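User: Can you predict the 3D structure for this chain?
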Amino acid sequence: MFATPIWGWGKQPGSILTTRFKAASATYRLVLATLLCAFLLAADKSRADAAGSTVEFAALAKEKFVASQETFQRETNNAEAAWRFARACFDLGEFATNSSQRANIAEQGISASRSLIARQPSLAAAHYYLAMNLGQLARTRTLGALRLVSQMEIEFTRARTLDENFDFAGPDRNLGLLYLEAPTIASVGNRLKARVHLRRSVELAPDYPDNRLNLIEALWKLGDRVEARREFKALEEVWPKMLEKFTGDEWAASRGDWSKRFDSMKRKMEATPKLIESPRAKP
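Assistant: Here is the predicted structure, written as structure tokens:
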């Protein structure tokens, strides 16, 4: 498992744009450059800073992609083989070197997910990995990205309805990130919904580091520094034991990402005097 999704948006379609929408297009491009290393897109798993590590994780993703693809092609009616291949597509897409490559891989995952949904519409994993791969595809688009984001919201919501515990509360985690990072103008961004879903992911899977970190980072970003500190203090007390539950090569990238974000959040809190903070209204 590798990186958390980064969803992206492009310029606004149409020839007549208000000043506000023109200004918003810069936000969409920024989102395009910064989002899915935080989602997701789930495989939820991580970014590696060192070039050597990136090559190593990319090779592992490729290996898993090839293996799952062979199984999927050999067992065409096997539902688990289908969604595992879709997951491998998302993971490999994180290491794509250009938009064409990322789009090609994502479209394979989308196709596998849609075919599986046609056969088993009540399977949460199919909807979940459809949304994840739509997120990868959105990173390669401009005009069509907003439509893909809306589809992602629909599919994550369906996955949540079918199995909210899937992938360590993945549906709520990714919905929370989507609502947090998407623009509120002409898209699905909603800060209240972001809080609700990110907190729900912690309630469902409190031992999964990404859920706790996402909530803390969101609270800090939204200005609720007091609550962010409270959540971080609780996380700090269990952090070493929490990481012990995710060992081995499969979790190496994620552990590196989680540790980096934990340390970064700690530094931010230490550098920000508590006296200048004030509680924010809770949703």
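The chain has a mean pLDDT of 82. Residues 225 and 273 are 10 Å apart (CA to CA).
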